[in-house]
Amino acid sequence: MDIAVVGAGIAGLVLALRLHEAGVPCRVYEAAPEIKPLGVGINILPHASEVLGGLGLEKALTAEAVLTAESVFFNRFGQLIYREPSGRAAGYRYPQYSIHRGSLHAVLLAAVHDRLGSGAVALDHRCTGVAQDEDGAYLTFRTTTGDAPLPRVRADGVVACDGVHSVIRRQFHPGEGEPRYSGVNMWRGTAVGRPFLSGASMVRVGWLDRGKLVVYPIRDDVDGAGNQLINWVAEIETPHHVTRDWNRRGELNDFIGAYEDWHFDWLDVPALLRSSDAVLEYPMVDQEPLDRWSFDRVTLLGDAAHPMVPRGSNGAGQAILDAKALSTILAGASDVSAAFRAYEDRRRPATTKVVLTNRRTPPDVIIREVRDRTGDRPFDRIEDVISQEELAAISRRYKDVAGMSAQSLMTGG
Length: 413
Prior knowledge:
Keywords: Monooxygenase, Oxidoreductase. The chain is α/β, with parallel strands linked by helices. The protein has helices at about 10-20, 45-55, 60-65, 100-115, 165-170, 270-275, 315-330, 335-360, 365-375, 390-400, and strands at about 5, 25-30, 40-45, 65, 70-75, 80-85, 95-100, 120, 125-135, 135-140, 150-155, 155-160, 180-195, 200-205, 210-220, 230-235, 280-285, 300.
């Protein structure tokens, strides 16, 4: 059995490494003519970092990342609402990585080249469609650089890891329609700054109506003076949105007004935003969960299968869990169509829950709950507003949905 993987993003590369480990031959086809470090920060939670650790990547990732030690929630006045340990500090066997997406991608790509060979990833292959018969699946490609046709590729099975703009998803679901806009626009960037709070804190501040901020370090001591590379995400309710393109440039003046008075004793937010090299803009969008991923010898994985609103640090994590499930099933399979159906049966219900939960009750609803109970005013004591037990329960419910609370993930489990 050989598998063609369409897309050399995080999902496609992890799948290739897992298939190689399982003894299933594969090749990855990527539209980009060259692979460059793109994006900004990303979080890999312990349920996904366990998969990467199982691939022997923990040492390489630890060298590039900050190991997140806590999650902290504040209102827009800088008052502490709730904090809880994260990653190994919370008892998980594997860390939570806060890392630049480009660094994560580079670690995965180096591992693929080392283990599968330098020809394992075919670049400049833009997929235009897939056909199949009883003997196999057949992919058609054109070059991205010159729009020239390329030889057709045959495989026993095809896995579409080609992201939110998946050509293969569109082929099998042509009437799906446009992405669902959440009403929230997002701006992202990185800046060099002094460590704040624990130096390994993932922080969420404020709420979407007046401006919300997610901020965390993704690289330590970037200049020899102890400064960190700090990732930030600004989210604001906005009636209009732009095309979803992870690398679209944004304008600081479009959103910084919401944060001008956010001068906290642990971080000067407007100063951080203004010191960023560049700003990226992306709408908070997802798609309605599909009723089907697999079509005989073809299936979907990661963002091609379940694009979700980027909350809860779970987009890449769920793709990694997809790769684990599919590779495990394919390792013992003789019928690729049956294996794809079994994979979908295992993963589609789980990811549907995450997609819907990210819309309604991601972890940061902790801040919304406090805002609603206080009328968006400062409080004297958080205990007079909401108990720590209730806050912990909100966090725990999301972990249950995301697959992070299983005892097997915890130390001694």
